[in-house]
Amino acid sequence: MLSEKITKVLNKQIQAELYASNLYLAMSAYADAQNLPGFARWMRLQSEEERGHALRIFDYLGDREARIEIGEVKQPPAKFGSPLEMFEAALEHERKVTSDINQAYELASHEHDHATMVHLQWFISEQVEEERTASEITARLRMAGTDLPSLLLIDQELADRQAA
What we know:
Layout: H1 4-33, H2 37-63, H3 83-110, H4 114-144, H5 148-159
């Protein structure tokens, strides 16, 4: 059985993952409106991945017979500026998620909740990948600057992303 503190933190993380899903979906819509279909596809797939993360925690809480509360998911912004600014926002968001997951892991460690620690280990590894990917794309967009052919090339490459 999960403690009340762990249950609360994991429910809050479901809420954060659902916000992330909505954030990336909003970014997808924005990129699509900017005629950047590769960026839009990448962000849409990222949105689906984040929803999967929320469901992973949802299922864990259910498996542990804990109370599941979704909570209110705030509305993401609708505009994100340039593709670089959009990916900078995505990277910043992923860093916040990493911090949240690390705090949840610390709580589980403090409470000697080994099952939750094991469950959260997957998310810790996943966040390394999430930050690395967002950081690499951000770096490439910085290199491209305002060069439109470079931006279109990056857009084409992002369109090749496959679902996880």
